[in-house]
Amino acid sequence: MDKISKKNWKVRLHDIIYEADTPAGKLFDVILLITILASIILVMLESIRSFDARFHRFLNISEWIITILFTIEYIARIVTVKKPLKYITSFYGIIDLLSTIPKYISLILGGIHALAALRALRLLRIFRILKLARYMGASNLLISALKASRAKILVFLFAVLILAIIFGTLMYLVEGEQSGFTSIPVSIYWCIVTLTTVGFGDITPVTPLGQIIAAFIMILGYGIIAVPTGIVSAEYSTRNRLGAPEKAPSIHLNTLSCANCMSEKHQDGAEFCSNCGHTLNT
Amino acid sequence: MDKISKKNWKVRLHDIIYEADTPAGKLFDVILLITILASIILVMLESIRSFDARFHRFLNISEWIITILFTIEYIARIVTVKKPLKYITSFYGIIDLLSTIPKYISLILGGIHALAALRALRLLRIFRILKLARYMGASNLLISALKASRAKILVFLFAVLILAIIFGTLMYLVEGEQSGFTSIPVSIYWCIVTLTTVGFGDITPVTPLGQIIAAFIMILGYGIIAVPTGIVSAEYSTRNRLGAPEKAPSIHLNTLSCANCMSEKHQDGAEFCSNCGHTLNT
Amino acid sequence: MDKISKKNWKVRLHDIIYEADTPAGKLFDVILLITILASIILVMLESIRSFDARFHRFLNISEWIITILFTIEYIARIVTVKKPLKYITSFYGIIDLLSTIPKYISLILGGIHALAALRALRLLRIFRILKLARYMGASNLLISALKASRAKILVFLFAVLILAIIFGTLMYLVEGEQSGFTSIPVSIYWCIVTLTTVGFGDITPVTPLGQIIAAFIMILGYGIIAVPTGIVSAEYSTRNRLGAPEKAPSIHLNTLSCANCMSEKHQDGAEFCSNCGHTLNT
Amino acid sequence: MDKISKKNWKVRLHDIIYEADTPAGKLFDVILLITILASIILVMLESIRSFDARFHRFLNISEWIITILFTIEYIARIVTVKKPLKYITSFYGIIDLLSTIPKYISLILGGIHALAALRALRLLRIFRILKLARYMGASNLLISALKASRAKILVFLFAVLILAIIFGTLMYLVEGEQSGFTSIPVSIYWCIVTLTTVGFGDITPVTPLGQIIAAFIMILGYGIIAVPTGIVSAEYSTRNRLGAPEKAPSIHLNTLSCANCMSEKHQDGAEFCSNCGHTLNT
Question: For the CA atoms of C208, C214, C215, C216, what is the dihedral angle to 10 degrees?
Fold first, then answer.
C-alpha cells in the first residue's frame, strides 16, 4: 500500500513522459514524434518563399500550436523530474528549451531569420523518443568500430588536409586568377572538392599543366579513399568476429530512465538505477 | 499410361511457358526474352523526339505487334495455370498485365505520356525468364550479406539524412538565396549531392564561410562512405568463410516451377512441390 | 659444338627480340619501350591543333621514323619465329601490324583522322615488353580475386543497369524536356552519371519531386558502392590468407618465350616449353 | 660532477630545441607550432587580393617578424647540433632554410609571387614538432599496410592510366572538338575526371555514342574503386590480426633525438643512439 500511494500524479506523469513501456507512455512518444516531425517540416516549408507567401497565416498558427505544445511538455518535464536543474542543464534539456523559445523571441524582436537554425535543433529531439532500442545492437557495434578507428581516421583526415593545402597552393601558382583560382584558400577549397571526388565544376583548371596536376590529385583522391574504408572494414570485421559478448546485452535493453538522475540503458529486470541507486520500480 | 494421358495440351503448354528444361521451353524463353528487350527498346526510342517524328508509323506498328504477343502470352499463362486467380494477383501476374494494357488504353484515351512508365515495368519481366540460375549462388550470398547488414545500413542512411538536414539548414542560413540556396529543402538537396560526393555543381557555395562548411561536408562524406563499405565487406567476409553449407544447394538449383502454386527454386531431383505438395513430374 | 653451330643469326635475333635475359635482349626491350612511348606521345601531340600547326613537319617525320622502325621489327619477328603464321594471327601479331600500317594507308588515302585510334593500339604493345615480371605476383593475386568475384560483379552491374533504366524513365516522366531530360536514353545516361556519383551537372533536376528522386538515387549510389568493394575485399582477403602456395611460383617467373609456339610464363629452370615441348635453351 | 659540467648552454639549448620531454622543450615546441601555423595563415591571407589590399602593411610586418623568428631558430639549430653540415643537408634542414629565405630574397628582387610556394613548405615543418607520438601507433600500422600494398596499387594505377588513354582517344574520335574534346590529352584528362567519379562537368559528351561510352567509363570507374579498397582492407586486416608485436613498441616511443646524428624514434629507456652510438643522456 505504501508503494502504491507513492504513485501520485507526478510519478505517473513521469512514467508517461520518460518511459515507453506503458500504453500511455507509448502514446505520448508517438504524439511527440509526430509533433517534432511536423515542427521540422514547418521550418522547411517556411523557408520556401512561394509557399510562405501563400500560406503565411497557416504556417504562423501551426508554429504557435507547436510552440505551445513544446512549452507544456518542457514544463511537465521540469515538474516531474526529481532534480529539475539537472534536467535543465542536461544536453536534452537545452535542446528542448532551444526548440521552444524562438517563437517567443520572434514575438519581441520580429521574425529574425537566424532563429530558423535554432528551430532546426528540434531534429535532435527525435533521438530521445526513438531511443533506437531496436537498432542499438547494430549501431553499438558500428560506433565501437568507429571509435577504435578514430585515431587512424584523424591521422588520415590530417593527411588529406595537408595534401589539400600543398596542392591548393600549387594550383594557385599554376592556374592563377583568370581560371577561378583567385586565392590560396579558394584553391584549397577546390582541391578538397577534387580530392574527395565531389567535383562541382564551378572552378576547373584550364592550363595543360593545371590539368595534369588536377588529374594527379583525382587519382590520388580515388586511391586514398581506400584508406578509411580499409580501416573501418578491418576494425568492424574484428569486432564482428568477437561480437557475441558485445551483441548479447543489446537485445535485452529496457527503455526505463531513472526518475532521479535520468540515466538510461539499464539492464533488463534491473530494479535500481545503475548510476545513482534510486529505485526504478516507480 | 495414366501418367501419359494426363499430358494433354494444357500441361504441355504449361511446360513450355513455365519451364526452361525442355527444348520447346528454352525456345519460348529465348523468344520472350527478345520480345521483352525489343519492347523496352521501343519505349526508349519513342521518347526520342527526332526518332519518333521520323519513324512514328514503324514504332506504332511494332508496339502493336508486341502488345498482341504479350496479350497472347498473358492469356496462355492464365489458361494453363491451375489456379488462374493466384497467377493474376501474383507479382508477376500484375507486371504482365501492366506491360500489356497501356497500348489498349491509349486506343481509348489517346497517347498519354504517363503510360510510358507502366510499359517500363516490362523490364521486371526479364527476371522471370533469366531465373538467374547461373548467378543464383553468387547473388544469394550477396543478398544474404545485404540482409544481415540491413539494420546497420538503415541506421547509417538515417544518420546521413539527419546530417543533410542539419548542414542543409546551416548552409541556407550562411549562403542565402543569392547563391542558389533558395530554401531549406533545396539546401538539403544540395547537401545530399555533396555528402554523396556526386557534386553536380548546379548550386555551389560562394561565400568563404559557405565554402569552409562545404569542404567540411565533403570530407565528412568522403570519410563516412567507409561505413557501409566496411559493414557489407565484413558481413560478406563472414558469410564467405562459413560459406560452404550456404553455397552447396545453390549449385543444384532446378528451373521447374509448380503448376499448382507456381512456387520455384525446388531442389534438384525433387518430385513434389516443396510448397503445396503437388507433383512436379508433369 | 653441335649446339653452338645451331646458334645461327636467326636464333640469335630471336633471342634478342623475344627474350629479356641477355644484355642484347634487354637493350632491345629498352629501345622498343622508348619507341612505343614516343609513338604514343606523337599521336597525342598530333591531336593538339595548335601544336600540330606549328610542328607539323617534325611530327610527320617522327611518325615516319617510328613507322619504319616498327616495320623492321615486325618483319624481324616474322622471320625469326618458327611458325610465322601463328605469330601473325596471334593477339600481339595483329596489334603489331595495326600499330604499323596506319601511316602507309594515310599515304594512299590522305590523313584520315580515324586512323589515330588504330595507332593508339600501340599502347597495348607495352605489355609485351614489360612482361610485368616484377609485379606479376601482385597482379596475379589481384586478377584471381577479380575472376572469383566476376559473377557477383556482373550481377551487381546488371542490377545497377536495371536501376538506371527504371529511375531514368521515372526522371524523364517527372522532369520532362525543359530540364534537359530530353528522352529516356538521355535520362538513363543522367541516372548512371548520378548513381556512380560522377555528377557532371550538365543535366540537373529542377522540380522539387525530381530533386527528391535524385537525392534518393544519390544515396542509393552512395550505399551500393559498398557492394563491389565488399566482394573484392572479401575475395582478396580469403586469397591473401591462403596466399602462400599461390604466391610461391610467381617469384621465380622467367622471361623466356618459346621460339616454336611463343607461349610464355615458363617455370624458372625449365628447359622445354610447357606448351609444345620445344627446347627453350636456344 | 663531470657529467653536470658538460651540461653547458649549448647542450641545454639543444635539449630545448630538439626534445619535447622537458617543460622548456615543450614550451618551445608550442611556440614554434603557433609560429608555423601563423606563417602558413599569413601566406594564405596574402593571396586574397581584397585582404592584401586592405592589410598589406600588417601582413608585411607579420611576415618579417616570422622570418626573423625562423632565422633565429635556424641559426640556433645549426649552433647546437654537433654536426651542423649534416643538419643543413638533411630533409628538415632544407625545409627550414626554404621557409626562411623567401622574404630576404623578396627584399632584393621585389615581391615575386612564385616564392609563395616555397613558403608553403613551412607546412612540412609541423611534422617535426608534432612528432605525432600519440598517433604513431595508428599511422605505423597504416603505413605498413600501404607499403605492403604498394606494388598492387601501382599495378592498379597503371591500369587506370592505360584505360584513361585508351578511352580518352576513343572519346576524342567519337565526340570531336565541338563537344570540348579538343585534343587527345584533353580527352584523357576528361577520362580521368570521369573514371575517378569526380565529374567536373566542364567537358561533357553530347553525342549518343559518346554518352554510351561515357556511361560505360563511369560504371567501370565505379566498379574498379573496389580494387584499391579491397587491397588496403585485406592488407590492413591481416596486419591488424597479427598486430600485437607491431603495436607494442609504438606505445613506448620516446621523443628524444640524438644530438650527434639527429636520428629519432629511440626505444624508451635507451641510453645510447641506436644509429651512431652517441649518448642520449645529455
Answer: 120
Cα gap B192→B210, rounded to integer Å: 15
Average pLDDT over residues D73-102: 86
- Confirm or reject contact between D199 and chain B (CB < 8 A): yes
Q: Which CATH architecture has domain D138-241?
A: Orthogonal Bundle (1.10)
- B residues 237-256 closer than 8 Å to A (CB): 237-238
Q: Could you give the 3-state DSSP secondary structure of residue B244? A: helix
Give per-residue pLDDT as tens, A14-63: 888 877 678 888 888 888 888 888 888 888 888 888 888 899 899 889 98
Measured in whole angstroms, the distance separating CA B199 from the mean position of its chain's CA atoms is 27
Which residues, 6+ apart, have CB-to-CB distance to A125 below 8 Å?
A: A32, A36, A92, A95, A96, A99
Query: Taking the alpha carbons of C97, C98, C101, C103 in that order, is the dihedral positive or negative?
Result: negative
Q: Is C47 on the interface with D (CB under 8 A)?
A: yes
Cell numbers given for C63: 611518325
What Å distances lie between residue A183 and A165, B203, D61, CA to CA?
Answer: 12, 21, 21
Domain boundary assignment for chain B: 2-135, 138-241
Question: For residue C97, what are the contacts with CB-CB under 8 A and spacing of at least 6?
Answer: C74, C88
Mean pLDDT of D221-239: 77
pTM metric for this prediction: 0.79
Mutate to test the interface with C, among B150, B200, B203, B237 (most CBs of C within 10 A): B200
C-alpha cell at B230: 566496411
Using a CB-CB distance cutoff of 8 angstroms, which residues of chain D are in contact with residue B200?
Answer: 201
pLDDT for the residue numbered A154: 77
Residues of chain D in contact with residue C116, where contact means CB-CB under 8 angstroms, are 169, 172-173, 184
Nearest CA to CA, how far is A200 from chain C (Å)?
8
Q: Are A14 and A259 in contact (CB under 8 A)?
A: yes
Torsions phi, psi for A181 (to 5 deg) = -85, 70
Whether the CB-CB separation of B180 and B202 falls below 8 Å is answered with yes
Yes or no: domain D2-135 corresponds to CATH 1.20.120.350? yes
Contact status, residue A203 vs residue A186, Cβ threshold 8 Å: yes
**Stretch B171-187: mean pLDDT:** 88
The interface predicted TM-score of the complex, written ipTM, equals: 0.75
Q: Cβ contacts of residue A54 below 8 Å, gap of 6+?
A: none
